[in-house]
Design goal:
By secondary structure, this protein is of the alpha/beta class. The chain has a single domain, classed as 5'-nuclease (Rossmann fold, 3-Layer(aba) Sandwich), CATH 3.40.50. Helix content is 46%, strand content 11%. The chain has 7 helices and 5 strands. A 5-stranded parallel β-sheet has the order 3-2-1-4-5. Helix 7 links the parallel strand 4 and strand 5. The radius of gyration is 15 Å and the shape is globular.
Length: 142
């Protein structure tokens, strides 16, 4: 199972995202493969979907939540509610690779994926340099 990070989720649902087609193709090649979201990625998705500067198809909060409900209705979807504390040893281990404040959420999501026995699916190639590929699934963008 893959935990979808925020950028991957946004690219999946926003048809004007530059990587929308690539993500759809990647997801299609993994037909039948389980995926997950969590509170961090879902709240982030609501924030991005409501931002008119990011998408010509921005929506209000209710519409964004309805889209997340649609994601939840997919039988392959799981919601990860077993969230590790920032003081948990899994987060400590991942946090060692963090080089700056912008990577803290990424580290947390990787620790979450690790805690739940899955990988963090991402478009962000730089995460491989920082965290390695043990708990990352890099989605090709071309």
């Amino acid at each position: 199972m893959d935990l979808y990070d925020l950028n991957l989720l946004f690219a999946l649902v926003a048809d004007d995202h530059p990587h929308h087609s690539s993500v759809l193709r990647w997801k299609g090649n993994r037909d039948g493969y389980a995926f997950a979201t969590c509170s961090v990625t879902e709240f982030g998705l609501i924030r991005l979907l409501m931002n008119a500067r990011l998408s010509k198809n921005s929506v209000n909060g209710i519409m964004a939540v309805n889209l997340i409900k649609e994601i939840h209705s997919n039988p392959l979807h799981s919601y990860l509610d077993r969230l590790p504390s920032v003081t948990a040893s899994g987060f400590d281990e991942v946090l060692q690779g963090v080089r700056g404040y912008r990577q803290v959420t990424d580290a947390y999501l990787i620790a979450l994926a690790k805690t739940n026995g899955c990988k963090l699916a991402t478009l962000d190639r730089k995460l491989l340099d920082t965290f390695g590929d043990e708990y990352l699934e890099l989605v090709p963008t071309n």
